[in-house]
């Protein structure tokens, strides 16, 4: 199910995160939060990536623990790469470590140090609604429909290998999803290259997979 807001948090902030979700959803804005919205039989990483891709805004419950969480950093990185607005709901008076600072430097911050946090939640809801209204105004009118992949297993395997050099295990999920939504190798290569964070990485990936652009069927 598509939900407007993806909530990223460290496990130690679970109670705060779920309280935040309850307040935001009471205002009529749907949220996606793990593990509540992950099916028991689903693959955790795939569900998170799909949820980030489908969301319109990310809310990061930012604390000392989330500041040092590799999982949180990966989620924020994916959101920023997808050009998703990130609102950092800061519950601890700490500054982001370098691994997060790079991704959060241009994002919106809300300080919520004091409790009870009702006034902070109200401010968050206000900013979420503005962000959602802005996204709705610029949303594409054509929706993308997935279909069964027509690309060969050998091609997909090599594309996954090349992408994994730069992104790690998440490459498999990204290749599977992109393969179901493209009809040509060239389109698939371009879509996968867009998952990379720098122009240098994108060019290297395209060069490394150039063999598939000529003489390779799907």
Would you write up a description of this structure?
The protein has 218 residues and is of the alpha/beta class. It has helices at residues 14-26, 44-54, 64-67, 70-81, 98-104, 118-138, 153-167, 170-179, 185-193, 199-208, and strands at 5-8, 31-32, 57-62, 86-90, 108-111. The protein folds into 2 domains: 5-138, Rossmann fold, CATH 3.40.50; 153-213, no CATH class. 51% of the residues lie in helices and 10% in strands. A 5-stranded parallel beta sheet has the order 2-1-3-4-5, sandwiched between helices. The two termini are 30 Å apart. Residues 141-148 and 214-218 have low confidence and may be disordered.
So how many helices? 10
Q: What does the overall shape look like?
A: elongated
User: Main beta sheet: strand number and arrangement?
Assistant: 5 strands, parallel
Please state the structural category.
alpha/beta
Distance between the termini: 30 Å
Unreliable segments (pLDDT under 50, ≥5 consecutive)?
Answer: 141-148, 214-218
N-to-C series of helices and strands: EHEHEHHEHEHHHHH
Assess the beta-strand content as a share of residues. 5-15%
For this structure, what is the CATH homologous superfamily of the largest domain? Toll/interleukin-1 receptor homology (TIR) domain
Strand order of the largest sheet: 2-1-3-4-5
Could you name the CATH class of the largest domain? Answer: Alpha Beta
The CATH architecture designation of the largest domain is 3-Layer(aba) Sandwich
Short description:
The chain is of the alpha/beta class and 218 residues long.
